[in-house]
Amino acid sequence: MVKITDVARRAGVSPSTVSYALSGKRPISEETRQRIEAAIHELGYWPHAGARALASSRSNVLALVIPLRAGIHVPVVMQFAVSVVTTARRHDHDVLLLTQEEGEDGLRRVADTALVDALIVMDVQLHDPRLPLLRSLDRPSVLIGFPAEADGLTCIDLDFKAAGEACVEHLARLGHRVVALVGSPPEVYVRGTAFAQRVVQGFTAAADRGGLSSSVHPCEASPTAARLVAEQLLREQPALTGVVVHNEPILEPLIDAFEQLGLRVPGDLSVTAICPDELAESVRVPVTSVALPSAEVGERAVHLLMRKLDGTPVPEATLLPPRMTDRASTAPRTA
């Protein structure tokens, strides 16, 4: 393993001078800096991102901020994370994953060091307390999600409002007149999580526009909760024939619960969802769904950040249109 003393010997300087060059804590001459950089490359000494910062004053590290809060469905979140990491590597960047709920303090702690060049922020709330700090940082950022006021920020996401509308409009075309949204866990709505709120907005707007009777039901991510919601829906909306699900863990348990209560899918009840395609396809009754494009969103978020780091203008808002796939869980209303 190449050591810092090997680099110092090759460059003809002391180990402390190499350390100063890597950390930037003390000024060194350009000639000495170039010798150290050449020695690092010749010997393959890459102890951390600081070595790469010699030429560019960058760490070549991005921060991915994913607070793993209650109600978050971790498998889906990790799909976004994998996409960000693999795309960042294609740009010769590493990713620092920040999963603790540290809010502004956590962002400030990372931004005030030379640890990262830029940030990708997830689990955005409509009125996110982190936004003033993100607007003031001297490091670029991209949000996966849209707050209520996005001016001065770079945001990308699926158009969740349009996704909610698409699900309702699909059911309406099939003749369904009484529909329900079985949504995210209650704590997700309490936090004002943007994507969940946008789905409700789209669902409600499309139902009102089409003259449909509709209701919204947050649901804990458990089979027991799915059963209780199914029972409540049939008790409160006996004419129900269409359901939109925006809660990945309960998709199959909810269908099972309805069928145990005597409703066949899609003979008596049509079900649509907003979820990853692989989940929709794997359910016993493949579900008509709007795809959750985690790979595309993660990739494009990194591309936006790379352009910002290079000083290239980028659009403030990138909304991906919903893509619906018709599967076996929906059919025309029969009664």
What do these coordinates show?
- This protein has 335 residues and is α/β, with parallel strands linked by helices.
- 45% of the residues lie in helices and 16% in strands.
- The protein contains 14 helices and twelve strands.
- The strands form two sheets. A six-stranded parallel sheet has the order 2-1-3-4-5-11, with helices on both faces.
- Strand 1, helix 5 (74-90) and strand 2 (94-98) form a beta-alpha-beta unit.
- Helix 1 crosses helix 2 (15-23) and helix 11 crosses helix 12.
- The longest helix is centred in the N-terminal third of the chain and has 17 residues, at 74-90.
- It is elongated, with a radius of gyration of 25 Å.
- 41% of the residues are buried.
Shape: elongated
Physical arrangement of strands within the biggest beta sheet: 2-1-3-4-5-11
Uncertain segments: none
Helix content: 40-55%
Q: Would you count the extended β strands for me? A: 12
Summed over residues and divided by their number, the pLDDT gives a mean of 90
Q: For the CA atoms, what is the radius of gyration?
A: 25 Å
Structural class: alpha/beta
What is the N-to-C order of secondary-structure elements (H for helix, E for strand)? HHHHEHEHEHEEHEHHEHEHEHEHEE
Largest sheet: 6 strands, parallel
Provide the β-strand percentage band. 15-25%
Number of DSSP helical runs: 14
Distance linking N and C termini: 74 Å
